[in-house]
Structures
1.
Amino acid sequence: MRIALLVAVVVVVAVAVSGGCAPAERPDDARYRIGGRVRGMWDGAGGLGLRLEGGGVEALLTATANGAFRFPDEIASGASYTVTVASNPASHTCAVDENASGVVAAADVANVSIACTGPEVAVALSGNDGWRFDPALDRQTFAGSILVQDVALTVSGAQLSGAVVDGAAAMLGRATSPIALPLGSRMVSVTVASGGLSKTYELVFDRGGSVLDQIAYGKASNAGAGDAFGNKVALSGDTLAVAAVAETSGAHGVNGDQADNSTEGAGAVYVFVRSGATWTQQAYLKASNTGRGDSFGCSLALSGNTLAVGASSESSDASGVNGNEADDSAPQAGAVYVFVRTGTTWAQQAYVKASNPHDLGKFGTSLALSGDTLAVGSTGERSAARGINGDQRDTSAVDAGAVYVFTRSGTAWTQQVYIKASDSAANFKFGESVALDGNTLAVGAVGGRATYVFVRTAATWTEQARVAAPNQAAFFAFGASIALSGDTLAVGAPSDDSAARGIDGDAQDASAPEAGAVYVFVRSGTTWTQQAYVKASNTGSEDRFGTSVALSGDTLAVGAIDEDSAATGPGGDQDSNAAAGAGAVYMFVRNGLSWGQRAYVKPTNTGAGDQFGSSLALSGRTLVIGASVEASAATGIGGNQADNSAAGAGAIYVFR
């Protein structure tokens, strides 16, 4: 029986062999190739020597460029293999960092990874986005929110001889000029050289690739009910100033007694600084002549190490700079206090008054600061003068309003000009809002239903334009808020009545009382024209969209303090109306000539009546939003947002 069986088997095998042109290869005789990818090698570096050992094979391969490689030799299935670096290219160190060894399965191996490090390269990216350049990656992507409008690169490396960024030569160790980032992706090439070697990196920046992220929740260090912390905010780089216009301490100057509650409505300002991603309070500021009801902090302006604080209800009859602070004979004449920082220490530099102070003048209602130039709005000023440097002694036009421009030389401030609207009249309230960018000044006049633009040549100011909404059949509070950035001007009209939504809708509609709107104007040469009529994506009656505005480059933020959605965080349900007066902020971005809404922003602790959007500040990649009626009794940064035991204490939220 055994013999018969063996014969049968032989016969079967013989039949199998006789079929076809060649014998079939047994599975255990299959052979496969080993390969992978090389990265990090510079152009001109020469060859990278790789060695393959295993399955009876010992082979060498020279890789001359980044990318895929494969040994021509084959290794049998089931055999072990090892890939090592046999020799490094010039000025490089290479290593197998993944899958250096293994066992061949029934397929080619293609996942051996070789990482090469050439001359040291570092690329620092501006901003606080957590972006980290990896010199081992030829192409890398950095995602940012819509706030990321530009990026500056600093290329360095001890062995480098030169660098080219985005087609232009770059100085090693020094930041490039900011490179504009439009919405979507923008690739920036970085080519570095070292001796005869060169390497090009492709850095892809994806603006809008990440959502707005709330990174801080801030409260006063002495949070108290009704203090209205966040009624105004100002931001410059890594420094943030926050006003609490109704704070009640009777302290004077810098870092006084915050626990004192003896002076109702005196007001205070808190200065915070950022280190990395962490915000801490640096100073607690009070007026040098703190007084009951002075409203210190009703306006703020910050530029570098200089901070201006308005107190529109201060009552001294002093005039000019550093006059008699103790005088209280002119109720609500108003004053401005200028503070400067040296190192980490703040001190008051000047006490500023109108050149024609009088009761109810409201000097300090609004402020704008650009370098050594300060503009101050005084909505209650009474002169019937018009234009530049008119008769300040006239008092025949109640609430006509005026703006005063001061300049600093060294540490001394002096008044440069006294400005009135060219068509000034009683109740114009010229100076309700001011914005200053270099030598351009914009002034809102809600009673005059217009905003005026002035320009400075040397020390001479002239009116360049008067802009107004084309649809003002009713009082829309046009000019209640304004923001200026280069040749773009945004004007808030929080009492606009149109029910339109989005961009350039029906401005003639009047079916949504006090819904609010924002008008965007642009300058070409010396001519200003309207570019967009901006409305919320969820327009609602009495939302007061446009109460606050902030503008930086092609990004516009708009606050609607009485919007009613109970949504939390960016991108929530806009149609929820369960939290009356909670407030919201809308983010718009200009792409080319067209504006579009890109984000709908709510805080993490939305509450009815909080008035999120009371104030706005936009600087670089940081957005700060005030909610002056928020009710938590928490103090400092990152406290308990769920607490609601201090009605009207106020809060601020920082987004990136």
2.
Amino acid sequence: MGEPSTEADRYRFLATSVAARPMVVVPTDGPAYTDGSLIAVDITAPAEVVRAQVVLHASLLAAGSLDGALMRRLLSHRTATARYLLLETVRLRDTVLVTQLPGIAKALQGPAAPFSEGPHASLRVALSRQSLSPTPADWGAIRPSRLWRLRSPESEPAEPQGASFVPTEDESEDEPEAPRMSNRLFSAPGFENGVLSQMLRKVFEGRSSSGQSRASGGSASEYSRSNGGSAVGSVTTRLALPPSTESRGADLVAARVVGWYPEWEAANDRYLQEWCRVVELPPTPGLTSEGIPPADYRFRRQLYRTGLCRKPRRQEPAGEDLDLDSLIRYQVDLAAGTDPGDRIWRHHSLTRRDLAVLVLLDTSGSAAEGGARSVLTQHAAAAGATVESLHRLGARVGAVSFAGRGRKLVRITRLKRFHEQDTGMFRARLAAVEPEGFTRLGAAIRHSTTILLREGGATRQLLVVLSDGFPYDDGYEGRHATHDTQRAITESLRAGVGCLCLSWRAEPPAAFEPATSASFQEMNDLEPRIAELFRRALDGADLRRRFAPLV
């Protein structure tokens, strides 16, 4: 292992940003590798090759591909280790680098390989007898003997909620503020919104002073929470965040492919098969739900009867039909000379809720318009009220946010899964959502429909879309985007999933025509109409599934 040199050390910031942990770059005469704390590269190679090696091995660390549990399986398996490097490099290159760092992705072009959904899937293929191409030498090597004790942040056991919240004293006087780079460095056109720019900002800015609270930066974040006991007031605590949650870049590297979907090309009246790739990102851990108002009881009251279905009750004193078993028992008791009673009826009452709802929230860059009262702020408030109200009423409810950059990177985040009971965690995740990227509505709606059909677990299912309704992405605009969105909604209706599309301060756009749609100015405007909108959307899906052809 070499010592740091001036030429190699200039890549240290790049390695630290991508890996989301302190890293050192050192020279080596052999193939590039990492041991979890340093990246060794051949500095005599061309600069573009060195940069690609640094980003690749830092990405492997951030994605959990070099977790010790995986590396132990590769000990003494040199050929399988090289195959595993090939599969993981292809996965990261085609999932994230191709759109976030296209220059690096181009430098990592190599042989074709089957696309893997994650490190464990890559390991299974690497240890199998499936034929694979040789791994390019420029990509370096994985050394399991140096990594088998490494534990990625994702592999650490989760602590019980609240277990690590220890009140601490103010430490600001002992910690001088880190020097900051000029903001002009990150204000160049095309660079200010980049993921790498965001990561580098965090590296250069360092930790904030104790007088400031940064929910998504530094190695520790401060927040206040009310005491759960009888004491009144708040306790200021310092919550140490794992490295994987301190960089959005690390989350992007950890993206998991969850589906390929077609896109409707209206100009040629055909589907572009397996055209859009949807990847799932882990939700950003929120420290507070500030900004997301709690659901008003009046909103919940409006939805009280939504999704209720009739449950038969037997042996009732009155009802619509005679209960055959009770009638037979009545005759037996009468013949035996005992009092048979009068409970011989069957009555159907609205007591069972058979409804699954998935809220789809558009978090693309256009949702930032409007300042303090932005589109995203209003849509997030509506999403929070809908999810919390339905959850308290006993319906199965989930929430997904989406944005994207190109057809191969439609990003979705599961803010709440159907089985999760902690609405406080959902509200914190919702408050941490930030607008970015573009709007490929068709792929997002198709994937959300798939989630509902696979996990909904109810007879009646509803997709609630909160978006401005103007789909736009690279190669996805105008009539093509509008018709694809309409087609995706029609496919959902045909599958029996109702679609309700809501927009703030805008008339329902043309893209939402097949669905039940409405606009609202304030939550108070939406409250008296929400039950009727739900009913129309669910009834529309029932009718479309039974009678309407797919056009």
3.
Amino acid sequence: MKLLARLLFALPVVLSVVLPVLPAAAAEIAGPRLQLSTRSLSFETPGQQKSVRLENLGDAPVLVRSPRILAENARSDFFIRPVGPLAIAPGQSATLEISYRPSRPLGGPGQPRQILSALQLPTNDETWPRSSSKEAVSEAEPGPPIASLALVVSADPPLLSWIVFFPLLGIPFILLLPASRAGMSRGIALLTTLVPLCLSLVLYRRFDESFTVAAGNHGLQFIEHLPWIRGFGIEYFVAVDGLSLPLVVLTALISVIAVGASWSIPPTQRLRGYFALLLLLEVGMMGVFVALDFFLFFVFWEVMLLPMYFLIGIWGGPRKEYAAIKFFLYTLFGSVLMLVAIIAIALSSDPSALVDGTPVGHSFNLLKLAYANDFGAGSARSAILGLGFAKTMWVLLFIAFAIKVPIVPLHTWLPDAHVEAPTAISVILAGILLKMGPYAMLRINWMIFPEATRWAAEAVAILGVVSILYGAFCAMGQKDLKRLVAYSSITHMGFCLLGMAAFTPTGLSGALVQMFNHGIITSVLFLLVGVLYDRTSSRELDDFGGLARAMPRYAAIFGLGFMASLGLPGLSGFIGEVLVLLGAFPVYTVLTALAALSLVITAAYHLTAIQKIQLGPFNEKWRVLLEGRDLTARETATLLPLAILIVLFGFWPLPLLDTIAGGVKDVLDMVGGR
């Protein structure tokens, strides 16, 4: 305490000495100091003209060489006056006039919806970052300092940011509710998940299916791109394409369904904390599917970890702590591998520039890592553990993402997490989280390391088939209905890997369709398990029978969901699997035949579940609990939209296939499709 008192007494004395010196020190800074009036200019209409003021705050002349435009699209969209070098005396300023005159319409069919350019001003002001080594005379003498600002034209509002972060708005309102009104958190959570769903449907409605990489912007739409942590070359970069858009819509839909499925949780069970974590979880899930900066992607990936851990560990079943810790450790192990790979890849990348033209020595931009860097066997990057750099990074990332799929033998966390998680969390886990693994593989492994992907393709296909068969045999031996559905997910996600490894348009399309349709079907199955467990506190197959007579509406949707899961033609589960088999058969004939064999096993355990639960004599011990207690209005509201989608995409998968077509082409162009 005496030391603290002395420090507090001395603080005014120190400040009285230091503060008068600071302005004087600032005034004595020598040399040119170029300051821009803005770091970003936004244009709305063709012909619009804006200006930026260049001011010299130093005591020496600022020299600006000829300004230049750094652009992803046509360089003729922006014109600058004056075009020649500038010399700005101390205390003086100059003005650059920038006009937007596009060479093609913005936002038309097959045309970019955003133009992201940068104005770079080579200068003699050493406080600005230096340009890349491409302009350097030697490594000891790097290129000139570059002052820069972003030039942005967008035909769209920032829809993606609203979709990703809107659920955060509901969290403080939920947490500030008094305990006596904890039930109101249900309505707040429903509202803050309905808004992203509506916006995602607007996103889908405005999505241009004809826009691909060849048209510009790397095939991306609804781009939001700005510097985030400029000193480390990290950006806030979100966008969608054919790979991610269906998963964005699926995430928004399943999040609303999960809120509805959580309606029966009583206020006495920490209801406010539950819904706050659920909304935070949606932010992380949505962010993963739209993030295109590697560091930002990792942040969103990690945002999912803690909410899911607590949602299982606090509101789960009897072995919730074990299941939550197991989930946490598996996921954390994958996150560590991913972080190591992110750092190594970024530090090994070529010099680049941020979206506003700021030169950086490395890049976290996933598109630049894919299209502007060569990590192949011919690169100068050193080998690690006997493997080339690209292959080593590929393996690290593949393991990190395989845990989320999950692939055998990295799957053991999944059955425990599903069985112990509340119904709504099981729905999210199977409906959304399992899709992040295959999506991340396509977005990162397949795009950044195409040569390593071709090297590992057969191993991926083998792992996929092993997962297909292992999951099917394990599911067939289950007595717990929820565990049966959990193991069936391993089988279905194995088909995704097989289709991805085939490198054919049909196979990859089937994998993406399977990801989307599995999210819908498995959500229905876990909701159905939850309805039964809420009434009876049992999930054992042998405990039931004859429910079709006692609960006919429940039996109808139960039959629809399980028939879709086994791949009945005319329902959505059939389309993805048959496309994978058709696309993979010419490439992996034996493996595809083995995968097809699993369809028989899958049909066997699905039909067994239907027979044991819905048919036969009614178990009299459930008469009081189940007789006349068919689906409630709330349960019907959560199940019916998904049931409609199962039938719709079973008979008419064209909207989904059209949406993913551009993304499929871009991936296959990168990896060298067959």
4.
Amino acid sequence: MSLTELRTYPDSDPNTPFARESRRSSCPGCVSKSDFEVSKAQTRKRTKRGTSSRLWEQAKPCWPHLLAIGILALLSAPFGLLLPVPLKLVVDNVLTHHPAPAILVRTLPAAWLHSNAGVLAIAIGILIVLGLLMQLQVLASWVLQTYTGERLVHDFRARLFWHVQRLRLSYYDSKGTSDVAYRIQHDAPAIQTVTIQGIVPFVTAFFTLVAVGWVTCKLDLQLALIALSISPALVLLSRASSRKIHDGWHQVKELDSSAMAVLNEALSAVRLVKAFGRERKEDERFKTRSRERMRGQMHLARAQALYHCLIALLITIGTAGALWVGARHVQSGQLSVGELLIVMAYMTQLYEPLRTMSDKVPEVQASLVSLERAFALLEEIPETLSAPNAQPIHAVNGRIQFEKVSFTYPNGRRVLDNLSFAIEPGARVGVLGPTGSGKSTLLMLLSRFYDPTAGRILLDGIDIREFRLRDLRDQFSIVPQDPVLFSTSIAENIAFSTPSISEETIVAAARAANADEFIRLLPNGYDTQVGDRGSCLSGGERQRIAIARAFLKNSPILILDEPTSAVDSRTEASVISALDQLLRGRTSFMIAHRLSTLESCDVLLHFIDGEVQVVRDDVKSYLRDVARAQGFSFEEPVARLRFPLGEMHCAAD
């Protein structure tokens, strides 16, 4: 297959897999409205919902597993109630010769109950069976909890990643990527902690408390009331501590994310850090953030330790009171020694769910804070929304018009002002101007990474906001100034836009970008792993891989942002020669500081301060005049261009 045969638009058909997927919500597998049809009002409405309702929505697909975990956990209550029974049999029926319990008399042969050895064997048998059943319950719970927890984390992370890829570029411009990565990787797993280790144990503890409390009341109502008398104090203590700990965890999480940002910055720019000898400085930055986080963590640890001490003290007081009353009841004949032992065993089981319920509320605060931070990502407004009646694109001619377009960044910096021009289909457009004049902004507006503050952009006479966003972006192939490669093979990087393409087509794209020769010299050829962000390749090699990737997409409109910035003059000439055939019949925009790169363009857009001089005749002569006026040679890269002539002004087409 040749490169010119690749011009297909698989997502134009509403029945294609992507078209069907685009009608799904931001959660893969949950059918809802289109990702791009969610209004701002709906998004703001979701922000008012509590964490509990959003948690239920996220965990709902796993409710059968959570129910099974709860049922298995509830089995611990009857097992716990039966566990003291063998001890009671030994004390009351073997050591002190009390009559056997009625249930044993009705269900077991009388010969087994007439001897101490028989009763002892029964007690041991019950203990062994209970132990076996309890271990089976623990094993089943462990496996089910592990599977359910990991599935919850996987689904939540996938939903977050699906959503953050659709956030506006302005979000990343202001927030960066480190905090987003921290929330997905470190905050999202909190859903497992809250559900599996928080809610399920809390609910199980409640039912266990009811069951054990009822049995204890049947044995001795006064002892049960004494044991439960500390419950109000536990509830008040739990609520007070949870509020304080919750606020503290918010601060710790922010500090943790800040330390991770420093770490990511230093490691991603490790060559620069080494070149300037800034290792010690970056080390101090990281240590400073980490120490702040450590101080916050220690403050929380002290608060939690104090809380646990108070819980233990209250339970000890309740146990002491129950023991005193129980001993008096044995002395008065209201209870036997065996009954006292079983009541005290039940008291221990009664306090265990109380302790669990009291402990879980403050302990889960760290995970609740993490969940709030993760859910906050889902409340961020996605990138530019498509209109409800957005049009599909099957093919475009490539005529582009800017009509009084202005653009201001969220920080207030205005880079384009009342910009108007028209580009005919198949034209080669050179874009020239100093850094910050609006060249890259122009190209981002074309592909709708941003929308104009005022005015409109037309593609074949239709406002680009009326097209489906995915279809619109399929019309563009982009080669950025700083090429981004993924840590996979060279072949996979070239075929990024069309993963199922044939090897022959990948090789054809590489040849067109003059990359085939150096690729074949690598140890594994096209299967060579490029390393993190292409670190195993030189700048020029990365640039040519990015160019080959754009060739392979074969879209009708090409955007080239300094495509030859990282190659030498000889390689540049061969790349431009290869581009010549590919660009024929396609509308293309090329940003370059090296004026010779733009000499084959049909139209030149000369930017400065948001204004543009449109040059259509004798572009090469104009470029030479620019070079002469600024004192540069024609082949030399121009870093800071100014308008060469005082009369240049914004010209509408």
